[in-house]
Every structure is written in C-alpha cells, then in structure tokens.
Amino acid sequence: MTLENFVNGLSGDKRLRLTVKLLRNAIQIWDDYAEGKEFEYTDSVAGLKHTVRKDMIINCVSAVERYLNSEENGITEEIMHLKKEFVEPVTALQDGDWNLSYSALKTFYSAYNLVNAVTLKEENVLGNSEIYVSINHAIDAIETSGLLTTEQIKQILKEAE
Predict the structure, then answer these.
(1) Residue 55, by phi and psi: left (phi above 0), alpha (psi -120 to 50) or beta?
(2) Which helix (H) or strand (E) holds 151?
(3) Could you tell me which residues come within 8 angstroms of residue 43 by beta carbon, excluding any fewer than 6 positions away?
(4) Burial of 146 (0-12, 13-18, 19+ CB in 10 A)
(5) At what angle do helices 12-34 and 130-145 cross, to 10 degrees?
(6) What are phi and psi of 123, to 5 degrees?
(7) 61 and 27 in contact (C-beta within 8 Å)?
(8) 93 and 105 in contact (C-beta within 8 Å)?
(9) Is the pLDDT of residue 125 over 70?
C-alpha cells in the first residue's frame, strides 16, 4: 500500500493527529536549523526586507492541537492568521528569495500544508491531498535528517490506524 493510500484511508481526525505527531518530531530539525540564524530575506519584486518568525512551526502545531482538542467547531482565528503568515515566506521560497536546508524546507512545507488542510483546502494545484503532502514532507524531513529510522516512522504510522 502506498503512503497516499494509507493516509486517504484514515479518518480526517486521524490524518491531522498523525501530521501533528510527525511535525512534533520534525520541530527539532527546524529548531536546529534556525539556531543562530536570522530568518530574513529581501523579496526580488519590491525589494522589501521580510522577517520570518522562528516559532511559526511550533505555533502551527500547537494551534492545530488546540483545534483538534477543542469542543468548538470551526477554524480558529489563530489558524487563519497562521495561514496568512505563511503566504509571503512560501512565495519567497518559490521565487528563490529565501533558502532553507532540505530538511528545514520540508518541515516548513509540512506545516504550511497542514494549515491548508485544516482550513479546508482539500487539494493542492497538482490534485494531491494537502494532508497527504504534509505527512509526506514531514516523513521526508525526518528520514533525510536521520532523526528517526524507517522502522520508527513505520511504528508512528501503525499507531495512527
């Protein structure tokens, strides 16, 4: 079974919880990369300087955890704010104005896709499920960095069933 088929076979809540669990692991990648760095870039279109908050990933994971554990229905203002906060840095990455290491980039995109999934954007422009893409990016970051073994990742996936 492919990862995509596995993810699509999970309930929506289980998909989100799996992504949160994987991103909780990947936060170490982000934090290690961010240590001692200024997350600033100048956009090539307007020449404006931008700063990216280093706590975006942990804030994203924490906001989605609160959303999952809440009795209230609906997307929170905090998650909508995070979604907007991702727009400029994602554009900078796509334009080549901001560069990250491979694993940090995959962690960042995993968080971005998680926020998109929570805010009801089912698929990306390529027709892939946002939550599947988020999970795939997180696993890629974790494996590439050597943070967890393939067996440990498989165990996390098994626990998600």
Answers:
(1) alpha
(2) helix 150-160
(3) 50, 88, 91, 92, 95, 97
(4) exposed
(5) 40
(6) -130, 155
(7) yes
(8) yes
(9) no
Q: What is the pLDDT of residues 36-60, one digit of tens each?
A: 888 999 988 888 999 999 999 999 9
- Average pLDDT over the chain reads 91
Residues with Cβ within 8 Å of residue 109, at least 6 apart in sequence = 90, 133, 134, 137
Domain ranges of the chain: 3-160
Looking at residue 142, its pLDDT comes to 98
For tokens 């626990």, name the residue.
Answer: 159
**106 CB contacts (<8 Å, ≥6 apart)?**
26, 137, 138, 140, 141, 144
pLDDT tens-digit series, residues 57-73: 999 999 999 989 987 76
**CA 43 to CA 40: how far, in whole Å?**
10
Whose tokens are 């080549």? That residue is: 96
